[in-house]
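re: ur question from earlier - yeah i can do the single chain one, its not a big deal. heres the input i used so u can compare w yours
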Amino acid sequence: MSKATNYDRDFLLWTQQQAEYLKKGCWAELDVEHLVEELEALGRSEQKEIGSYLQVLIMHLLKCQFQPEKRTKSWDNTLSNCRDKIQDCLEDTPSLQRFLEDSVWIQKYYRRACRDAAKETQKSVETFPAECPFTIGQILDPNFLA
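and the output i got, formated as tokens:
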């Protein structure tokens, strides 16, 4: 039976076996190829998680700025919750901070936030600036657009 058999058939069993091999130092038994894949995927999921919160946060900032008359407590709660979740992500994984300093990465999530804000506000995407009008400091500041 190959090292990858349980990976393909029963992922939970595979993870438990790999953990046991690591604990016991059974290096030859490890499914290194799939372990590397899973570790890389884990890192990407952390990055996507913070990006998802950023996208929702920016969308709500846009809604607050471009449709202030419709602002609700629910929007305020979403702003607070997203900021808290981003802060939690940064506390757990400080290396994620570099993505928040990357204008190309921010712009990716800004474009998605514009698309979503346009749908929710029933405004044209062109209503919103082509480039993110907020600094990362403003985006994360609990007093910004409060």
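The chain has seven helices and no strands. not sure if urs matches, ping me
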